[in-house]
Automatic annotation (TrEMBL), chains A, B, C, D:
EC number of this enzyme: 2.8.1.10
Entry's family note: Belongs to the ThiG family.
Record domain Thiazole synthase ThiG: where: 7-249
Keywords linked to the UniProt accession: Cytoplasm, Schiff base, Thiamine biosynthesis, Transferase
Residues that bind 1-deoxy-D-xylulose 5-phosphate: G158, A184, G185, N206, T207
InterPro entries, alphabetized: Aldolase_TIM, Thiazole_synthase_ThiG, ThiG
Gene name as annotated: thiG
Catalytic residues in the record: K97
Protein name: Thiazole synthase
Amino acid sequence: MNDLLHIGGVSLHNRLFTGTGKFADHKEMKKAIESSQSQVVTVALRRVDINGRDEHILNDIPEHVTLMPNTSGARTAEEAIRIARLAKASGMGNWIKIEVISDHKYLLPDNEETIKATKTLADEGFVVLPYMSPDLMAAKRMEEAGAAAIMPLGSPIGSNRGIKMKEMIRIMIDEINLPIIVDAGIGKPSEAAEAMEMGADAVLVNTAIATAENPAQMAQAFDMAVKAGRMAYLSGLGPTTEKANASSPLTGFLTT
Amino acid sequence: MNDLLHIGGVSLHNRLFTGTGKFADHKEMKKAIESSQSQVVTVALRRVDINGRDEHILNDIPEHVTLMPNTSGARTAEEAIRIARLAKASGMGNWIKIEVISDHKYLLPDNEETIKATKTLADEGFVVLPYMSPDLMAAKRMEEAGAAAIMPLGSPIGSNRGIKMKEMIRIMIDEINLPIIVDAGIGKPSEAAEAMEMGADAVLVNTAIATAENPAQMAQAFDMAVKAGRMAYLSGLGPTTEKANASSPLTGFLTT
Amino acid sequence: MNDLLHIGGVSLHNRLFTGTGKFADHKEMKKAIESSQSQVVTVALRRVDINGRDEHILNDIPEHVTLMPNTSGARTAEEAIRIARLAKASGMGNWIKIEVISDHKYLLPDNEETIKATKTLADEGFVVLPYMSPDLMAAKRMEEAGAAAIMPLGSPIGSNRGIKMKEMIRIMIDEINLPIIVDAGIGKPSEAAEAMEMGADAVLVNTAIATAENPAQMAQAFDMAVKAGRMAYLSGLGPTTEKANASSPLTGFLTT
Amino acid sequence: MNDLLHIGGVSLHNRLFTGTGKFADHKEMKKAIESSQSQVVTVALRRVDINGRDEHILNDIPEHVTLMPNTSGARTAEEAIRIARLAKASGMGNWIKIEVISDHKYLLPDNEETIKATKTLADEGFVVLPYMSPDLMAAKRMEEAGAAAIMPLGSPIGSNRGIKMKEMIRIMIDEINLPIIVDAGIGKPSEAAEAMEMGADAVLVNTAIATAENPAQMAQAFDMAVKAGRMAYLSGLGPTTEKANASSPLTGFLTT
């Protein structure tokens, strides 16, 4: 199946994006990323020692992976823009996942500031992937601002609560012309598969992998689930009915 | 991962059981079963030309597969028992999935008659897998009657409605000592994955594969989803929280 | 609205049945039952001091109420039958809610034993209301055995988890000719309203009232919710659509 | 119970707001509004013949009701502001529900434009109630802009799909200091009750009433459901448990 996802000039055959947070150590993180088969990994610039001292998280991310630095810690567009430029200047490439968060309890992104940062950074040539609170009109503005893909949250980050915002994500998939990558809240492989069956283009999973008892194995489970969900989407799901519908012939008992 | 499911003296590494109904033709069915990687396939005795004339459905089921004839068409224990014996006599082995159905609209199984047929056939040496309406006490009686596994329905057969009876299946998984195989109603790979994450031992999928636009590819999607769900179950799912929980460090903006 | 529910020769205008368990004391129970407007109240024979010593729970149940003694504590049909006869002999009337439970963890009823007790007691002239694990064929047998109404559980008793068994209850409402009274698991007035909107004939609520901070006020809330749900059912719910459907005119902006 | 909702200097004891769209005729509308007991009714300025010719919709809205004209038809903040001023100038009072919608398929509101209109109109002394796509940060901005209450949608307007955006509404109830009024999508009284149990301050229902077979009776059902949900919220809902929890004593069978 030659089913590729094109973002920012890169062609991806794997639709599971992963993150680098919450792992016990770099070794566990590395193992999980490898077994996830991810081709895109997000990393907070704060985690990167850009002066090159000490242990460097980037050393533990497989070489073939596209790095997607994120602006975690930014509370405004301005701060996000500054982090993005620093990331690029330090050689982390031109992809940037914009996270602008000033809400401390539910860590929900600020769509308005995110749109501003998207505009500025897209104009500067970044491949911009805004993380957002699912909302059709905000997503349309991000599209107009030059985003390369849209990353709506399924539920609050790190909550493992699943795709609670399904209704709006369903609508965004229907109405937005960019790739939709469900990010945050996915807690189980079945939920990742469901996102893909709905027509999402990819998912980003971090907490559910990092907080599993066996992160590397859970990463592999997510990889398979994302592939299964994508394949189901492409295979054309059968219709749902209210009543039963016999699989086996029921027309009377055998009379032999 | 050496994770085997033992039923009736057979050790299975694949936990997706499939069926033979509703396919456009035998060729499509054969292709779907092959790509599902199933090791157990159910077939209605009615579908089998036991006199050997004409095209024989059994010729199109891969050889390595354990055949699980079912008693589809039976309305009473007595009829189910008669079908089971015919199946064995015609060389289809000693596995039998008991289906006793007299409700014509929702095709819901009759637990009481099913328990009776289970007792008789288990005593005769069959490997009995009763298909049932999820109910803890009925499942306990099937266990006592000698069932080899219990097959509760997720929702009405052929409806593709998903695992609507989750609450009772969750309890049965917790309380019954036999393998639990979720059968009927599973419409999407994500639902199969979810059944496995809940701790089900296997799932049986027929309609969702046969009614897909591309049945063989959908069968492959289900195979992967079942493996993903099982692997997630074994990997220890992380906890769910009400609030957010940062994946990335948020302790203030970088000050460099 | 002259909308009456007829059971066992009694015509009820109130469709909220209540229970007597878990209240802090008899006074609180009495107040809650009164504000619930219930016309049917269930009481465990064990709670009744049939020798008339001490404080008597029956003294605190309003006089106009139809008493529905239950067989709580029974593990078999035989025990349930014995309790039922004792209840009648002690002057508690001829209604009986059959509860046969031998599962200690989830307290799920035993449908097979319940059917037996229903048959015997209905033949003896009792108005029999069997509490059951939702299952169409078992409900049909209870109907044949002479039950006056069927009481499927929404979720495990006392769990406040809501109507988790909706799929099977929906089917039972469609297929069974007796009143369906959703019993056990209803934790919120909205869930009671939903049961009524689905077409249930009544609900029984105990734990959700007794464990509220203000039981009497919660009882009133349930009364109103049940009436609201029933009235909605009778008013013909409008259709659900996938897309939006303007309530207000949207045909262009005003041009004055 | 002296439980009042204060908005814009008005104290409301009824928490069901209604609308005027989709009714067969004015007579049916009038009857439904009356039986809803609503104290706040929204009306699209487009529906009002501000030149006073012909039949006037306002004549059929009960006198004691607070009129909440809405800006339906506006695609931008500027258009909404213009409609609001026209409404006030034509004597419809100083309440205004802001609706800014440029999406034609799902009719989802534009939060950014809505925030702008809220700011301008609140500064001009309007009591501003913005209709919005549920999003915590946008709601915070509306609060800062001077909104009197926030009106998040439950699901696309007129869809009767229920409160699909529960997750975000739950968070907004927790985090926003203004009254939260769930608007759009509520299709059944049970869903209105659920919104109130979650802690919403009011709900607005139009389509579900207007498209019922008996709109006036359905309006009454919603009134009761909203009261039931509010009362349940104030009565302190009991805890939910995973296992069962006996209502009746189960400690062994009676030994008399």
